[in-house]
Amino acid sequence: MTPVRVYDLNQLHASATQIFTGALESCNISAAFDRRIRFEGSRMIRLVPDGSGPEVIDLDHYKRIFVIAIGKAATPMLEVLLNRMERRRGLRGICCSNNLPQEHNWRFRYFESGHPLPNQESFAAARATLHLLKKARKDTLVFFLISGGGSAMFDLPLDPTITLEDTIAFHQLLLASGAPINEINTLRKHFSAVKGGRLAIAAPDAQKVSLLVPDVPLRTLDALSSGPTSPDHTTVSEVRDLLDRYQLAPKLPESVRLFFEREDLPESPGNKARKPSLLPRLPWTDVQHIRRTPITSAASLTGEDPAFRDSVYEVLLSTNDLVEGARSLARAAGFYAVVDNSCDDWDYNAAAHYLLERFHSLHAAHPRLCLISVGEVTVELGSNPGAGGRNQQFALLCALELERHPGERIAVLSAGTDGIDGNTQTAGAIVDPTTTARARAFGFDPEKSLREFDACTLFTAIGDNIVTGPTGHNLRDLRLLVAEG
């Protein structure tokens, strides 16, 4: 086979990058907000998903309006809401993110929280939110603006004796475990005083509106930021099974291990039988409200619990929007576009081999091809990982596989839509059949970089990393496999 020209590969790199960045730009929070919700004077109008007609909430009906913004998209979501909403009387709130605005609204408290690991501001934001929600009554409307990343940025142990240091170690262990995000968040929900529906029960009498930008599959919306306002269907039994399956218990900090070993470990609010709660031990919660709120059936984002009964949940943006944006752009560029999200939550190794095999089978019939895959892959970190993330790890493995096809005009891009991959400030990487040879010319051993989870160093050196900076949202990861001829 004739070796591919560098010019051809550069064109493929440019095409894949343009599809990725264009898909990100199409997922505009302001435009998405206007498609789902609009304000007319004091009225908030929402199109009901079942098509039965608009739902109207009159803001003047409420004495106070609280806004709790959590996650990577907290800042743009809050800015859009405040720009659209004329009502300011009784308005107060919290903004918790790793990317805060330069100008602060005096009605809000801002917390620059940690990600992918919590920091002191994560604890402070959770305490401040619980304190504010104690003031919520029937005359209070609470907007929860929830996006990806909130699991780390916004946390507080259910057991107040657990320190920040032990909480960080707990989060770090979960991220290195290789478990899918929904299983990681099952453990986070049962650990935290502000996850798994516990923010909703902190303001049981208030009208609650949750506006969501999920970085999880739509079928598991209660996993978004570990479901602070959603009825939780996971159980203590599942928690114990996960700790055993991933052999986590012996690795946990002692305080966290003892917490999970408690015989009276409480169920999170949702579809479970009531069990004794640790919440009365927390000085920052409204104990009377917590004790009198029954835990009853809640199989999805609705439930019979009074704290959830009047709640409204609206998805502003999702991976569906990201896929449609990428598919439209690929078709406009002349590619035959195929979407395959079946490897979501797979191990990165299995996902890479599956997508490459699928791509080559399609490529035989469609020379100009773009295979689109959205979702996340899992990785299991060693004891001393280098600089990298799941997207760069996936891309580097693909590069090693493409090395076997030196004459193919093919490129693989994998990047996070939040602009951050693992412990780096890189969104991901793009590779082709020449990637490993170029890396070796720079003195790198690609197999060693893969083993040591140090792909970012390699990609930065050869210029194949994808850098976007913070994007203001997180709609999971986008993988593009493109070929010409």
| Strand count | 15
Distance between the termini: 13 Å
Structural class: alpha/beta
Strand order of the largest sheet: 6-5-4-7-8-9
DSSP summary: helix tally:
18
- How many structural domains? 2
Give the CATH architecture of the largest domain.
3-Layer(aba) Sandwich
- Tell me about the biggest sheet? 6 strands, parallel
Q: How much strand?
A: 15-25%
Query: What integer value in Å does the Rg equal?
Result: 23 Å
Poorly predicted regions are 274-303
The CATH class of the largest domain is identified as Alpha Beta
What does this entry look like structurally?
This protein has a 6-stranded parallel β-sheet, sandwiched between helices. The chain is globular. The chain has helices spanning 6-26, 29-36, 74-84, 120-133, 150-153, 164-175, 181-191, 198-201, 236-245, 254-260, 287-292, 306-309, 319-332, 348-363, 390-402, 435-441, 446-451, 455-462, and strands spanning 37-40, 43-47, 54-58, 64-70, 91-97, 108-112, 140-147, 207-213, 312-315, 336-339, 369-375, 410-416, 428-431, 465-466, 477-483. The chain has 2 domains: 6-25 and 319-483, MOFRL domain (glycerate kinase, domain 1), CATH 3.40.1480; 29-315, Rossmann fold (3-Layer(aba) Sandwich), CATH 3.40.50.10180. It has 485 residues and is an alpha/beta fold.
